[in-house]
Design goal:
This protein is mainly alpha-helical. The chain is about 75% helix and about 5% strand. It contains eight helices and two strands, in the order H-H-H-E-H-H-H-H-E-H. It starts with a helix and ends with a helix. The mean pLDDT is about 90.
Length: about 250
């Protein structure tokens, strides 16, 4: 990478990172909405400046299979997080304190979908799509996946002091999402998983009210195990597929 390209890469990343995190210094809802949407506009313009045709440079091209990957990801993310919630309930780590009516679910679901989609895709661009565009052809697979996962963890700057359980779940989720991006050379599957997970998280905090019954990090460790298992499942499924193709 030349000095010019290194400068362009670092400038672009810092630029997007600043826009992404700026709303966190304020409590006003309109600032958050403006900057999260503004992030997508800024990412689009930055992609044009750096030689790509819009967000396709970050792995968001509308090509064959993108919709299916998005739907698959949504199902995987929602189910995985849902399993962690069910396990926490079964182990007695959490309990449900409020069950919503069907009317409440119908009213709140559109807002949850919207307010989880924009931050999810913004973070995916920052911690995976941008790195794919700049480093995807310059690094080996394992190195790229590891760096992307680390960047994903570090991007949660306000949670870095929340303990090893939180950092572990973020790291394994980061590995899973980075792996899917590398495998598909697209952001759609990873975005779906991330979005589905965030939908499930918000649903258990704003629609179905839950309360922790323990002082330890049991629920977070369950989520860590689920993301780690999902990551390993993806790896083994690819190796199994490759071995079958080799035999043929």
């Amino acid at each position: 990478m030349s000095k010019k390209s290194i400068f362009s890469f670092l400038f672009g990343f810092i630029f997007l990172f600043s826009i992404y995190h700026f709303p966190e210094f304020f409590s006003a809802f309109w600032i958050m909405v403006t900057f999260k949407i503004g992030f997508l506009v800024a990412a689009f313009l930055l992609a044009l400046m750096q030689g790509w045709k819009g967000l396709g440079g970050y792995g968001l091209s509308i090509k064959s299979g993108w919709g299916l990957n998005l739907i698959k990801g949504l199902c995987i993310g929602f189910i995985c997080f849902g399993f962690s919630v069910i396990a926490s309930l079964l182990f007695g780590y959490e309990t449900v304190i409020f069950y919503p009516s069907l009317e409440v679910i119908i009213k709140q679901t559109p807002m949850i979908l919207l307010m989880t989609a924009i931050p999810s895709i913004a973070e995916d661009i920052l911690t995976r799509g941008y790195l794919l565009g700049h480093l995807g052809t310059r690094m080996k697979k394992d190195n790229w996946i590891l760096i992307s996962a680390i960047v994903f963890v570090l991007n949660h700057v306000w949670r870095l002091n929340d303990g090893i359980a939180v950092l572990s779940y973020l790291f394994f989720l980061g590995l899973l999402l980075a792996y899917t991006v590398w495998r598909t050379k697209s952001l759609w599957l990873a975005f779906g998983i991330h979005w589905g997970s965030n939908i499930a998280f918000e649903s258990t905090n704003t629609i179905v009210k839950m309360e922790s019954l323990v002082s330890h990090e049991g629920s977070t460790w369950i989520l860590t195990i689920i993301w780690a298992a999902s990551f390993l499942t993806f790896i083994f499924s690819e190796r199994n597929k490759n071995s079958k193709e080799f035999v043929k």
